[in-house]
Design brief:
The protein has about 500 residues and is mainly α. It is about 50% helix and about 5% strand.
Length: about 500
């Protein structure tokens, strides 16, 4: 929770929705509110009144959205999407502490690892930068890292512990597609290492069942283009992009911003100091290798490396330049078509290396002031990243612009007579993307149906079929480019380059 405060402002500001900016967050918040206050449909993720875009593809964290719908159906106050921002930070901290405890029994090392993970920028950047709410649920990845016990039934592992990977898979699958794929891959490596071959079948079958229930297989199968531009850079683990204490190593290529897996200033400081100690002290090398014999750590590094290699997309990208690019095998093309931002799959390796960084500091001879001083220093450096990154969030000017837009929308609808239905005449998918904050504000004002909303996976032919106001009538809201005159408006207002027309 401290990380949320430093990066995003006070919890009260987050709950007010101050994080909402002109981004995907606004689209997710509008979709979530529509879904929560609507009735039940099949498949469970169907959201017919919000442009027909399934909640799974609206960054709405389906498990959380379904819980909100259930509470609303019982007549209880439904949580907002803003609440999950704080929930994500809290759960991330809890699972970070659990993961640290599974790696080390030393209190100093456990707390250092927990702090390095909590103040790592990978998760906050999903909210501050692209503002992907569900994709910030990285606690499910940490859960997957501890979900499979390394003890067998014969060694005393309880049934609940042996099958804990199933709820971990469920929450990961119903959080976000990328997180579900990462969690499943980690769990699969651990089950195979345990020779639990029958259980590995569930890693494929159970998420597939959950995706079918939520409706992820129903439509929206549009390919998003090549994954090559979004491949991992070899130096991505050390590329701060200027968000933290360290300056960027090389200029940012736009697509690479979706591959933000910087370990953090503190983690890199820990690795560098640990490497120096490793070169200087034989006793230190013995202690480090004792930690490296941890089976969980070795399996985590293996799983992370497999996902990291997948994220390379058969390219050798170094410091922004592609030195070598091989064709993607045909059998992997469908997978890369669905997971275009493949660089995100470097996250588990980043978290595993942060574990290693904490262990290297913890391997300094104890008791001693040096280990405590170094631990404090690296943790402060890691936290400084988050403080600096918080400045990248929605600026005061942006919040003011949204406040003015809210007043415009409310003034337009103040005289009543609005049906709650929203139609559009759009020129391109880019126009729809620009209107996401407008969708959020109209939802706040009581919108009941959007004929068309932005979705990265919507088929262009379907977008064309939903264009125009041929089905709109008196009382409906019609949005069109300001350059297109419209004479049948009862009242109107301009928002950026668009006109809002109440028919």
């Amino acid at each position: 929770m401290v990380a949320a405060w430093l990066a995003l402002g006070s919890p009260l500001a987050i709950l007010r929705g101050d994080l909402v900016g002109v981004s995907d967050y606004a689209n997710a918040a509008a979709a979530f509110q529509f879904f929560a206050r609507d009735g039940w449909h099949w498949p469970l993720g169907a959201n017919p009144h919000f442009g027909g875009v399934n909640i799974f593809f609206s960054d709405g964290a389906p498990w959380y959205a379904l819980a909100a719908k259930g509470l609303h159906g019982l007549g209880l106050p439904a949580p907002s999407l803003h609440d999950i921002v704080l929930i994500n930070f809290l759960l991330f901290a809890l699972f970070a502490a659990r993961l640290a405890g599974s790696i080390s029994e030393t209190p100093l090392t456990r707390w250092l690892i927990t702090g390095l993970l909590v103040f790592c920028l990978i998760m906050p950047v999903r909210l501050i930068g692209p503002q992907h709410v569900a994709l910030s649920s990285h606690w499910v990845v940490l859960w997957a890292m501890t979900a499979v016990p390394l003890k067998s039934k014969r060694d005393g592992a309880s049934a609940a512990r042996r099958w804990e990977f199933l709820p971990a898979l469920a929450f990961a699958t119903w959080s976000h597609g990328y997180l579900g794929a990462m969690a499943a891959s980690i769990i699969l490596v651990f089950l195979l290492a345990q020779r639990r071959y029958a259980a590995t079948l569930l890693v494929f079958a159970f998420p597939a069942l959950l995706l079918w229930i939520i409706g992820a297989f129903a439509g929206f199968d549009t390919r998003l283009g090549s994954a090559k531009p979004f491949s991992l850079d070899i130096l991505a683990l050390a590329q701060s992009f200027g968000w933290g204490v360290f300056p960027p190593l090389f200029p940012l290529v736009e697509a690479q911003g979706d591959s933000f897996i910087f370990l953090g200033a503190g983690a890199w400081l820990a690795l560098l100091c640990g490497s120096a100690c490793y070169a200087a002290s034989k006793d230190y090398r013995v202690r480090v290798w004792h930690h490296l014999r941890s089976r969980r750590l070795r399996l985590l590094l293996l799983a992370g490396m497999i996902l990291y290699l997948f994220g390379l997309v058969f390219s050798l990208r170094v410091a922004g330049s592609v030195l070598l690019s091989l064709p993607v095998p045909d059998f992997l093309e469908p997978l890369y078509g669905r997971f275009r931002a493949a660089g995100r799959f470097g996250t588990p390796l980043a978290y595993s290396l942060i574990l290693l960084a904490g262990l290297m500091v913890g391997s300094i001879k104890r008791p001693g002031a040096l280990a405590l001083l170094l631990a404090t220093t690296v943790l402060a450096a890691q936290a400084a990243d988050v403080v600096l990154a918080g400045r990248q969030g929605p600026k005061d000017a942006e919040r003011t612009a949204i406040h003015i837009a809210r007043e415009q929308v409310n003034a337009l609808l103040a005289n009543g007579g609005w049906s709650g239905k929203v139609y559009r005449d759009i020129e391109s998918e880019t126009d729809l993307e620009k209107q996401q904050i407008l969708d959020f504000l109209l939802t706040e004002a009581g919108a009941k149906e959007f004929r068309l909303v932005h979705s990265a996976r919507r088929n262009p032919d379907e977008v064309a079929a939903r264009r125009g106001k041929q089905d709109a009538g008196p009382g409906d809201l019609f949005i069109y480019p300001a350059s297109h005159p419209e004479s049948s408006c009862r009242s109107r207002t301009r928002w950026t380059e668009f006109e809002l027309c109440l028919l």
